[in-house]
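Quick one: structure tokens for this chain, please?
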Amino acid sequence: MTATMEPAVTVCFKVRIDGHDLGAFTGCEGLGCEVAIEQRQEGGNNSYIHQLPGQIKYTNVKLTRALNRDTQKVASWFAELASGVTRTTAQIVAMTAEGTEVWEWKLRGVVPVRWQGPSLSTDSPKVAIETLELAHHGFLPTS
């Protein structure tokens, strides 16, 4: 995949987890990481506190979309996980409205945290939204 020079205006995100095409999602949040900082004071030095880098924490990724035929792909994937969850790799590809790939993120050590189906009610008709949440151990290099 090659990144385009177009601005990163995306409308959907294709998701693949170890060969399982889970379809396109319209929302993706949580692609990020944070370095834990440990603060240490040095005896006799009152001008600053040492800021020491620690572990890297990766935030969970939450993918959302309106319920559609691709929901069956997520259900099938979860059915396969019933015999045991193992860490895997995932690929999230940001796409434009024309289908051009803008950028991709490859995640390592992925495990599903949660799938949440839509809240259904005849009292207030709304778009039925599903959410898939993934935990991971970091990013893999992209080519």
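The chain has a mean pLDDT of 89.
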